Amino acid sequence: MTHQLSGRALLRTVREDLGVYRDRIEPARLRVAVIRFTPADGDPPEWALRMEASRVSAEQKYKAFTHLGLTVDPVVLPGTVSAAEFAAHIDACNADPATRAVIVQFPPPARLTSLVHQLDPAKDIDGLLGGRSLHRACATADGISRIVAAFDADATVAVVGARGFVGSGVVHLLEDRGTPVLPLDQGDDLRQAARADIVVSTAGSAHLLTAEHIRPHHRLVVDSGFSPQPDGSVAGDIHPGAAGIPQNLTPVPGGVGPVEMAVLMERIVRQTADPELRSWAFPSAPYVSRSASAPGRQEAALSRGETAVENTLRSAFGAARQRADGPPPPRPSAGRAPDRIPQLGTETAPGDQGPSTRAADPVSQPETWAAYSDADLISLRENSQRAAATAMERARELQQQHVALRTAYEEQDGGALVAQLREQGAAAHTIARARTAAWQDLTYAQQTAVETRTSADAAAARVQAIGSELQRRAALPLQQRQAEDAARQALAAHRTPPTPPPAMPRQPGPQQQSPGQGRSL
C-alpha cells in the first residue's frame, strides 16, 4: 500500500513557523519580483502547457511571499518580448534596493535564457545562476533533496532527468551528502531505475515511468513532474498504473510544489530577517529497506504467512517420504543445509551424499522436479494452495490493521500531538521529530503487511510452477513418460528425497538456521 507524502502539510507547518517573521519584514517594505512569460500566437501546444505550469507556480510564489509580509511584483511578459526589454526588467530589479529577490520562471524563451545571467547573485534566491549563485541548486532541487534525505540511509537514488536544470541540482545535492546516485536521462535505459532504492523523476514528461520502472522495493518515489493537460488536469511523471507500487510517493499536485515554496520562504527569511535561521527537515515515514524486501531476502520475512508456507512444504515432503520404500532418512542436523536432491540421470552411489548446497526452494528449481513422483508434486501443490490462501488472508488483515493505525494517527493522535507541541511553542524541527517518532509505531504493521503479501505470492507461484510441470509430464509420449518414471524409481531405490530446506533463505552468514527457527508474528 503506497503512502502519499503531503507537501502541503509540510508547507502549512513552515508557514506557521516562519509567520512570526512577518512583523520584522513587513515594515521594511521589501519586494520580490517574479517574472514569467505567456505563450505567443503560433507557439506549439506543448509550450503553451509549459507556460500554464509556469503560471501556476508563479501564483504559488505570490501567496508564499505575501504571507511573510513581502510585496510581490508580478511581471508578465509576452513570449514575443524583445531581448532589450527583458534585459531592462532585469537591470531595473538589480538596481532597486527594495527588491531583495528576483525569480525568473523557467523555462524562458530560449533566445532569452542567456540574459537571466545578468541577475545580481545576491538577489538570486532560486539558484538560477549556477556556479555564480549563492545557493547550490534551485529551490525545487533543494526541496527534493530534503525529501530524499529522510529516506536515503544506505540507499541508491536513481535521478531521471539528471542533466536537466532541476535534475542536475538534485544530483549535486545528493552527491554532497555522499548518497550514491544513478543519473539517467534521455537516451539511457530508464529501466535501470528499478535497481535503485529511491527514484526521483525530474523529467517533466507526463506518465513517463510505468510499472516497468517502479518496484515495490522502492522505499520512496519523488515525482516532480507537473504537466497540465488539455482537459484541465495535471499529470506527473509517474504513470497512474504505477502510483500504487512504491512504498512512499509524492503526489501530483500537492507533493514537490509546496515543498519548493517552503524552501523559497526559508531562503527569503534567512536573507531578509534571520541569517541564522535553521533549515527545516522533511519528516520521514515508514519503509521496508531493500535488504529486507529484495528477492531472496524479503522472502526471509518474519511473517505468519511465510511460516505457514514452510510448514506445509515440510508436511508435503514428509508425507512423500512415508510413501517411499524403506525407512525415512534422518533429518539434517541444525545449522547444516540439507543435501542436494539428485537429478535425473546422475550416477550416485548408495550412501554418497554429494556436496551440500545453500538452502534453496526445490520447487523453484525445475531440474530437481524429476526426483519427485506425480503424487508427491500433487500433495505439495495442494498444501501450497492452502498456504497461499492462509498468507493472503493474513496479508489482508494486516493491511486493514495498517490502514486503521494510519487513520488514527492522521485524524487523532498525530493532530493532537502537533497541536499540543505548537501550543507549547515548539520549533518546526521539534515537531518534525515528534511526528517522525509517532510514525515509527506504524512501521511494523506496514512491513509485515508487505512481507506477508510477498509470502502469499511466493506460494501461489509454487502452485503455478508445479501445475506446469505436471502438465508437461502429462503431454509426454508414453515411452518417454515410462522412461522418466523408471528413472525416478531407480533413484528412489538408492535414496529417499531429503527433507526440503526452508522455502526462503535465512539471514546470510556462515551458518544456516534450521527449519522452524525463523521468527513469526
From TrEMBL:
The entry's keywords: Amino-acid biosynthesis, Histidine biosynthesis, Hydrolase, Methionine biosynthesis, Multifunctional enzyme, NADP, One-carbon metabolism, Oxidoreductase, Purine biosynthesis
Tetrahydrofolate dehydrogenase/cyclohydrolase catalytic domain segment(s): 52-126
Pathway the protein contributes to: One-carbon metabolism; tetrahydrofolate interconversion
Domain Tetrahydrofolate dehydrogenase/cyclohydrolase NAD(P)-binding positions: 139-271
Positions with biased composition (Pro residues): 497-508
Domain of life: Bacteria
Low complexity: compositionally biased ranges: 509-521
Any single Pfam family the record assigns to this protein: THF_DHG_CYH_C
Span list, region Disordered: 287-366, 476-521
UniProt cross-references to PANTHER family, sorted A to Z: C-1-TETRAHYDROFOLATE SYNTHASE, CYTOPLASMIC, C-1-TETRAHYDROFOLATE SYNTHASE, CYTOPLASMIC-RELATED
Name the UniProt record assigns to this protein: Uncharacterized protein
Source organism (scientific name): Streptomyces violascens
